[in-house]
């Protein structure tokens, strides 16, 4: 493990060499920073690139720290509350003769059925996947609705919106115009979802984080900084 000091932050990274690569790549993930360089690239050149990318690396490291700091784990038992768009909805679990578990949302409450004989300690592994799929379905409809005002201001539309189980970030915009959103984002209030959507849609115009990009985000959401700060402080709680 190697490291550089960037301001007050130590950036530790793993270095891999590849005979297949012609350029250096940097990725930030749950396990830290990884650098893949062409074979025999001088360390000084690698560290020069790391310093240039320092602000982005630190931002990504901070985002990961917020996302994975000990969220409260749900057992998916009766009486618990499950989050969606900033609100908490009570869960009721019953047994059924069916071999397949089910989950539905009705009149402000989640109702789940598990096969008779399922032990309570297995409820989480049984019901959590159903809950995630429910969130993803609802999230896609919600995201498509919330993008429309921003599309009107930008005069641009995403090629596609996808709800994913992203480990690296709350959202992203691909070079070909697809917007990917983390399903966990939709556990937050709608105003926070709007911020991430605006953040990613602005990348349809600027694929960077320079001043003109942030000016565009501010045009879309004048109070975006407050929403961004909410996500930084409370993002760790957006999980089950």
Summarize, please.
By secondary structure, the protein is α/β, with parallel strands linked by helices.
Explain how this protein is built.
The protein is α/β, with parallel strands linked by helices and about 240 residues long. Helices cover about 40% and strands about 30% of the residues. It has helices at about 45-50, 55-65, 125-155, 190-200, 210-220, 225-235, and strands spanning about 1-5, 10-20, 25-30, 30-40, 80-85, 85-95, 100-105, 110-115, 160-165, 170-175, 180. The strands form 3 sheets. A 4-stranded mixed beta sheet has the order 1-2-4-3, with helices on one face. β3 (about 25-30) and β4 (about 30-40) form a beta hairpin. α3 crosses α4 and α4 (about 190-200) crosses α6 (about 225-235). The protein is globular.
């Amino acid at each position: 493990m190697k490291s550089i000091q960037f301001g007050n932050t130590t950036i530790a990274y793993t270095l891999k060499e590849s005979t297949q690569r012609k350029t250096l790549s940097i990725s930030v993930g749950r396990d830290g920073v990884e650098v893949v360089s062409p074979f025999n690239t001088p360390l000084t050149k690698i560290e020069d690139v790391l310093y240039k990318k320092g602000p982005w690396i630190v931002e990504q490291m901070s985002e990961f720290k917020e996302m994975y700091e000990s969220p409260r784990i749900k057992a998916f038992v009766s009486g618990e509350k499950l989050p969606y768009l900033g609100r908490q909805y009570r869960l009721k679990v019953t047994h059924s003769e069916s071999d397949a578990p089910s989950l539905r949302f009705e009149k402000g409450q989640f109702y789940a059925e598990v096969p008779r004989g399922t032990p309570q300690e297995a409820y989480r592994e049984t019901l959590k996947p159903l809950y995630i799929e429910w969130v993803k379905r609802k999230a896609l409809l919600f995201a498509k609705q919330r993008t429309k005002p921003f599309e009107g201001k930008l005069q641009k539309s995403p090629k596609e919106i996808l709800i994913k189980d992203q480990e690296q970030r709350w959202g992203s915009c691909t070079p070909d115009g697809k917007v990917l959103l983390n399903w966990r984002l939709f556990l937050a209030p709608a105003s926070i979802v709007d911020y991430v959507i605006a953040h990613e849609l602005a990348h349809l115009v600027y694929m960077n984080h320079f001043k003109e990009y942030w000016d565009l985000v501010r045009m879309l959401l004048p109070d975006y900084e407050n929403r961004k700060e909410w996500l930084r402080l409370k993002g760790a709680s957006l999980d089950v």
